[in-house]
Amino acid sequence: MNQKKILVLIDDVWDIADVQYFLQPGNDAFHIVSTRITKIVADLVQWKPIQLKSLEQNESIELFKSLLALDADSEKIL
């Protein structure tokens, strides 16, 4: 991808093998993985897990912005 940084969102993971494909050495990407299965989280010990309650849409957008270090008025991710 021409050395560009990318965001990879892997949603609703049920098997660790589904995530492993995206965790290749040298992959300069920011990853967000969502799962309801605690074993998946335990298998990804090198990551920083964040446990969330169900969020409203506006809460989800604010969390996403904060993880990307964007200010609250930014429209870059909308």
Strand order of the largest sheet: 1-2
What percent strand? 5-15%
Q: Provide the succession of SSEs.
A: EHEHH
Please tally the helical runs, counting DSSP H or I stretches of 4 or more residues.
3
Distance between the termini: 23 Å
Q: What is the 3D form?
A: globular
Mean of all residue-level pLDDT scores: 76
Instruction: State the total count of DSSP E strands.
Output: 2
Radius of gyration: 14 Å
The poorly predicted ranges are none
Classify the helix fraction into a percent range. Answer: 25-40%
Query: How would a textbook summarize the main sheet?
Result: 2 strands, parallel
Decide which structural class fits the backbone: alpha+beta
Describe this structure in words.
This protein is 28% helix and 13% strand. It has 78 residues and is α+β, with helices and mostly antiparallel strands. The protein has a two-stranded parallel ribbon with strand order 1-2. It is globular and about 35 Å long. The two termini are 23 Å apart. The model has no long low-confidence stretch (mean pLDDT 76).
Task: Give the secondary structure arrangement, pairings included.
Layout: E1 6-10, H1 16-20, E2 29-33, H2 38-43, H3 57-67
Parallel strand pairs: 1-2
Search tags:
28% helix; 2 strands; 78 residues; single chain; alpha+beta; two-stranded parallel ribbon; 3 helices; globular; 13% strand
Summed up:
Helix content is about 30%, strand content about 15%. The chain has about 80 residues and is of the alpha+beta class. The protein starts with 5 loop residues before the first strand and ends in an 11-residue tail after the last helix.
